[in-house]
Amino acid sequence: MCGAVSNRVRVLVWHRIAQDGPDRIPEIYRGISEDLARTPGLLANELLYSRSRPGTVAVMSEWRDMDAFLAWEQGPDHRGTTAGLRPYRDLDRDPQYELYEVAESFVSG
């Protein structure tokens, strides 16, 4: 089913798995997700492990619209809530995060 154009926004933030210990990213991600569960405008988020770039992880969040994302990003809770993943940010990747507006979507079924 083809959908109409939406205002939804997806944000991808790139991280690297630490080479000097166990992969703690899933545990940290789950804690952050619990903290964000009732954030206005946040529709979903996912933890994605790259199949083409081993050791690379992306956190993808989907927002109702750009205003909802910017309200959260510029709000007082943003930096504190996501601080646990910050040490894993992929500093070699430029940019370290990307914003995408959903132009169209298709849902199979």
TrEMBL record:
SUPFAM superfamilies: Dimeric alpha+beta barrel. InterPro entries: ABM_dom, Dimeric_a/b-barrel. Residues 9-97 form the ABM domain. The keyword Oxidoreductase applies. Keywords: Monooxygenase, Oxidoreductase. The keyword Oxidoreductase applies. Pfam families: ABM (PF03992). GO terms for molecular function: monooxygenase activity. This is Antibiotic biosynthesis monooxygenase.
